[in-house]
């Protein structure tokens, strides 16, 4: 069972619900330990920072830390784990491109290799996703959920897209 913690000033319930719902739909078992992080520096498999942290300095112990670089400003954060940045900037590890005009699809872009262990990793790739979404903010939850899915070995585009459509489609 994987542990997941969401940290940040703006603990967005919709974002968190979307990420956890998608992860669960893909069959990834998890335990949300957000209440314990970062206050006692407990270890988590995944730490997700979608907004600024309201603590002046913090140490995060994790396997993977997914950080939204569009919203993190000026925090003193020490990360003991693999940092994966996401957002709309081209220098992030994970970004989105080719958002369709009618908000009915996008391309998930993994820009850099993600190390898993000595024998495995996730190669840079682009995954076209055909799903309707209401607002651009939802794309952050898709970036996080798809990245965790790839790390957990679910790298079949059709399976990912099917689960996204079943869980989050507004059609």
Account of the protein in words:
Helix 1 (13-25) crosses helix 3 (157-168). It is globular and about 45 Å long. The strands form three sheets. The chain has a five-stranded parallel beta sheet with strand order 2-1-3-4-5. By secondary structure, it is of the alpha/beta class. The chain starts with a strand and ends with a helix. The chain contains three helices and ten strands, in the order βαβββββββββαα. It has one domain: Mur-like, catalytic domain (UDP-N-acetylmuramoyl-L-alanine:D-glutamate ligase, 3-Layer(aba) Sandwich). The chain has helices at residues 13-25, 138-151, 157-168, and strands at 2-7, 30-32, 43-49, 57-68, 76-86, 94-97, 106-110, 114-115, 121-122, 125-129.
Quick description:
The chain is an alpha/beta fold and 171 residues long. The chain has helices at residues 13-25, 138-151, 157-168; strands at 2-7, 30-32, 43-49, 57-68, 76-86, 94-97, 106-110, 114-115, 121-122, 125-129.
Poorly predicted spans: none
Helix-strand topology string: EHEEEEEEEEEHH
- Relevant CATH superfamily: Mur-like, catalytic domain
CATH class: Alpha Beta
Radius of gyration, in Å, reads: 15 Å
Integer count of domains: 1
Q: Which whole number gives the mean pLDDT?
A: 83
Distance between termini?
32 Å
Major sheet: arrangement of strands: 2-1-3-4-5
Biggest pleated sheet: 5 strands, parallel
Structural class: alpha/beta
- Coarse shape: globular
Percentage of residues in DSSP E strands: 25-35%
Q: Which topology does CATH recognise?
A: UDP-N-acetylmuramoyl-L-alanine:D-glutamate ligase
Helix content: 10-25%
Number of E strands: 10
Total count of helical runs of at least 4 residues: 3
CATH architecture: 3-Layer(aba) Sandwich
């Amino acid at each position: 069972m994987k542990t997941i913690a969401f940290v940040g000033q703006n603990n967005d319930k919709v974002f968190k619900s979307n990420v956890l719902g998608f992860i669960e739909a893909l069959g990834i078992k998890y335990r949300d330990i957000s209440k314990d992080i970062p206050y006692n520096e407990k270890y988590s498999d995944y730490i997700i920072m979608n907004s600024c942290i309201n603590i002046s300095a913090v140490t995060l112990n994790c396997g993977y830390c997914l950080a939204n670089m569009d919203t993190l400003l000026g925090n003193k954060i020490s990360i003991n784990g693999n940092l994966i940045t996401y957002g709309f900037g081209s220098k992030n590890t994970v970004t989105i491109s080719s958002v369709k005009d009618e908000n009915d699809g996008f391309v998930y872009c993994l820009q850099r290799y993600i190390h898993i262990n000595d024998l495995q990793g996730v190669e840079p790739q682009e995954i076209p996703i055909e799903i309707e979404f209401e607002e651009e903010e939802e794309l952050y939850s898709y970036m996080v959920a798809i990245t965790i899915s790839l790390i957990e070995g679910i790298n079949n585009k059709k399976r990912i897209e099917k689960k996204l459509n079943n869980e989050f489609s507004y059609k």
